[in-house]
Design goal:
Layout lengths: L2 H32 L22 H4 L22 E7 L15 H14 L2 E7 L3 H12 L8 E7 L2 E2 L2 E3 L5 E3 H9 L9 E6 L19 H11 L3 H4 L6 E5 L9 E2 L3 E2 H13 L6 H13 L11 E4 L14
Parallel strand pairs: 1-2, 1-3, 3-7, 7-8
Antiparallel strand pairs: 4-5, 5-6, 8-11, 9-10
Length: about 325
């Protein structure tokens, strides 16, 4: 093979390879050209989302945030005329009863009137009532139409014995007889009915017990347990939405200053004027009354007020703060 033939051989092979490549490119290009073209709809292509198991389908979609507002259930106090506040003020007792006149009670009556008028209650005062008159008066107010009012208040300032208050004739009126007619009053249904009783509940004097801070005194604990186990809890109150503030626990005396009024009523008025403008609830206010009264000593003795209630909501009595 001559030199020219050798030189032409590689070129020939390169030519064959080149033709093959071109042919293959044409075949593949032709195949691509023969494929069906997608339909042109003029709409943008939808982006497909990855498939997920149905069990997690709820997690796939955006959840709506629920705004949960926690609001305390309170008794409605929306009426301008809040309600009646009845004050029974027994000062002069008949001589046949051997009960002394209640000096200082007019100061309690005046302060209660001032405080509850600030709360937009219609205050009505009745002085020196016999037992039968007290019961008739209670029935009269229970039969009134309270449909346009928010609450009812009754304050009884008198002498008393275990579970009762006394008329000026010395006859007992059970506290249950004061509350029962209002439990049956349809226009006061589901509305708060407040009773504040300033009266002794017995002849005993509550003696204080001294003890070191942090030391548990078993004698004091037992005494309080025995005092709490009384018949009063079975005699009043009845029905729902009642609050009864007693000046003292049963069997014990309460104290009254001959000029400045009773310890319980004066502290009640003071705490109402402090707490109500701040929108404190009645349970908190009366707890402060209990603490302040029980921390004092009167003639070497103590006094422990007591609150009983069947309220079903939080009770806040609005009062404008007077500057």
């Amino acid at each position: 093979m001559n030199q020219d033939t050798k030189n032409e051989q590689p070129n020939g092979n390169a030519s064959v390879k080149s033709k093959r490549k071109k042919t293959g490119w044409r075949n593949s290009q032709g195949a691509k050209e023969n494929l069906p073209k997608p339909m042109q709809t003029g709409l943008p292509k939808r982006k497909r989302e990855p498939l997920q198991p149905t069990s997690n389908m709820s997690d796939h979609y955006r959840k709506r945030k629920r705004s949960v507002t926690k609001q305390t259930e309170c008794y409605s106090m929306s009426n301008r005329l809040r309600g009646y506040c009845l004050i029974i003020n027994n000062y002069t007792f008949e001589r046949s009863t051997s009960l002394g006149n209640r000096r200082g009670t007019h100061k309690d009556k005046d302060d209660l009137t001032r405080v509850f008028e600030k709360m937009h209650f219609t205050v009505e005062v009745r002085n020196d009532l016999k037992a039968s008159d007290m019961q008739d008066l209670i029935k009269e107010f229970a039969s009134k139409d309270h449909s346009q009012m928010d609450a009812f208040v009754c304050c009884v300032l008198s002498h008393g014995e275990k579970g009762t208050v006394l008329g000026i004739d010395g006859i007992q009126v059970p506290i249950r007889d004061l509350t029962q007619p209002f439990a049956e009053c349809h226009t006061l249904a589901s509305k708060p009915k407040l009773f504040f009783i300033q009266a002794c509940q017995g002849e005993k004097k509550l003696l204080g017990v001294w003890m070191a801070d942090g030391h548990k005194n078993t004698t004091e604990e037992g005494t309080f347990e025995e005092d709490a186990h009384t018949e009063a809890f079975h005699s009043c109150p009845i029905g729902a939405d009642f609050l009864i503030g007693m000046a003292t626990v049963e069997y014990y005396k309460s104290f009254r200053h001959t000029q400045e009024g009773s310890i319980f009523i004066q502290e009640l008025c003071r705490q109402l004027e402090i707490g109500c403008p701040r929108k404190e609830d009645m349970h908190s206010i009366l707890t402060k009354v209990n603490r302040m009264v029980s921390s004092q000593i009167f003639e070497g003795c103590k006094q422990m007020p007591e609150v009983r209630y069947t309220l079903t909501k939080t009770l806040v009595l609005p009062m404008k703060q007077v500057l």
